[in-house]
């Protein structure tokens, strides 16, 4: 990626070198920041306020530095600024953390991973592990309340089972449905209003809603010119302005002025797609939108939201799809299926507040080192813990680390150590297997 950028921007070698150094720092040292959640809060605050933390690593300062501020010091080239500053999670670069953006770009530097067989494989395999160790997994079983006793300790959940509600008691309750749902919907009003709960909520804002188009085509990737690469497509190279203008637009203006989109082709990434769906391809297009544009239909039911809603969402969809068609011209006549998701769809299917699929907003304030240290997996309610993407950051990798940090908190044991030992064991096993293979060949 570095060599490629240097070829594209031959006058920006120094800026590229510096940014790649930041990417490396973010990849190698962000765990310093995340581990703030595992050491006593007063120690973290002492280290941060005394400036000792900054002497240890630049990550504590970088995480609270807005991307635009930092990138402006590297280059004035707007195209390169865009490459350095932007990923799709709904926050303009001037309000996002340079460390988190660098981390995301690093994550994609050599290309990302895709689960063989599709995203459902993740749940499929995790469930087997949960069951193997005596746990279980319920579906279509929404939790309506986290049970808290008079002493203020969580002791279970109230879950819907068919038409009735049942109580499931447990010594520990872990919630990964986001801080807003957990604190504002699942705790009783008397607990919600407590100062420390409000303090936790005030650290976060609701994230932007997302808008997705899922399309299916007749034809293979080769026939349709589809590739396994992700595309981030922009109309303008000034993302701060583009996003500010877009999110200031009225409901009427927005569908015709979308400034950016993300295109991904799952079927081209999944080697099993060819076997399960021969001769077919699929594509997902994503952009971020304002929940308010769709809010008037919030009390309607999924798939029965009426013509006005349908026509409105299809205005976004048509513009996005026509734009995608300029990137992949062979797809248009091959479209055989299309479904369009708005923030309301995400609320229905993902339980995402205000349709924010990345849950709480990823603004720079959230990544101030002090906020990172305060937004921990433990909560003001004893025995209630937060996991998932609201712990540190969004995405599968972000949610995974949320889980690891949460497990470490609950068990009072840093499970990353076990993970490192497991990694070493697997590496040794692989080396042995390769050596045996070499021997056989000889
Ligand atoms: C279409 C799409 C594509 C994506 N693509 C990528 C990608 O390519 N790479 C990537 O890294 N990330 C991707 N993401 C983001 C990624 O999926 C999320 O960041 C991640 O799943 C967050 O994990 P989580 O466990 O924190 O929350 P979630 O996965 O959202 O899980 C929260 C769970 O809580 C459940 N829930 C909510 N309320 C209740 C309740 N009251 N009772 C019981 N259960 C409840 C929800 O049903 C949900 O299953 C994508 C997201 C979407 C929607």
Automatic annotation (TrEMBL):
TM region positions: 399-422
Alphabetical list of InterPro entries matching this protein: FAD/NAD-bd_sf, Retinol_saturase
This protein's record includes keyword Flavoprotein: yes
Keyword NADP: yes
Signal peptide range: none
Family membership: Belongs to the carotenoid/retinoid oxidoreductase family. CrtISO subfamily.
Protein name: Uncharacterized protein
């Amino acid at each position: 990626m570095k060599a490629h950028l240097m070829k594209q921007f031959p006058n920006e070698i120094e800026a590229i070198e510096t940014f790649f150094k930041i990417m490396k720092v973010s990849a190698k040292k962000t765990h310093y920041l995340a581990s703030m959640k595992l050491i006593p809060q007063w120690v973290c605050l002492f280290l941060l306020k005394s400036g000792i933390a900054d002497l240890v690593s630049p990550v504590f300062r970088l995480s609270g530095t807005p991307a635009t501020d930092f990138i402006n010091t590297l280059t004035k080239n707007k195209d390169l600024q865009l490459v350095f500053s932007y990923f799709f999670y709904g926050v303009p670069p001037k309000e996002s953390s340079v460390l988190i953006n660098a981390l995301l770009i690093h994550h994609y530097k050599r290309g990302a991973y895709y689960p063989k067989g599709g995203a459902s494989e993740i749940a499929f395999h995790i469930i087997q592990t949960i069951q193997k160790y005596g746990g279980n997994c319920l579906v279509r079983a929404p939790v309506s309340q986290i049970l808290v006793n008079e002493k203020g300790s969580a002791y279970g959940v109230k879950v819907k089972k068919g038409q009735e509600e049942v109580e499931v008691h447990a010594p520990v309750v872990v919630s990964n449905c986001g801080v807003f749902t957990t604190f504002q919907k699942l705790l009783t009003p008397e607990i919600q209003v407590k100062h420390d709960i409000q303090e936790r909520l005030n650290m976060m804002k609701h994230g932007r809603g997302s808008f997705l188009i899922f399309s299916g085509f007749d034809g293979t990737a080769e026939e349709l010119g589809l590739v396994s690469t992700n595309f981030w497509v922009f109309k303008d190279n000034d993302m701060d302005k583009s996003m500010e203008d877009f999110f200031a637009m009225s409901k009427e203006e927005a569908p015709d002025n979308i400034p950016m989109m993300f295109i991904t082709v799952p079927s081209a990434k999944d080697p099993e797609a060819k076997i399960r769906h021969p001769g077919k391809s699929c594509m997902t297009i994503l952009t971020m939108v304002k929940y308010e544009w769709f809010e008037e239909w919030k009390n309607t039911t999924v798939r029965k939201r009426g013509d006005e809603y349908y026509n409105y969402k299809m205005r976004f969809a048509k513009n996005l799809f026509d734009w995608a068609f300029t990137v992949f011209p062979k797809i248009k006549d091959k479209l055989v299926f299309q479904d369009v998701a708005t923030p309301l769809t995400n609320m229905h299917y993902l339980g995402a507040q205000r349709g924010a699929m990345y849950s709480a907003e990823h603004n720079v304030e959230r990544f101030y080192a002090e906020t990172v240290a305060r937004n921990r997996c433990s909560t003001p309610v004893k025995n209630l813990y937060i996991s998932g993407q609201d712990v540190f950051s969004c995405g599968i990798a972000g949610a995974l680390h949320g889980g690891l940090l949460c497990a470490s908190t609950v068990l009072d044991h840093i499970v990353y150590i076990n993970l490192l030992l497991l990694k070493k064991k697997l590496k040794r096993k692989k080396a042995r297997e390769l050596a045996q293979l070499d021997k056989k060949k000889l």
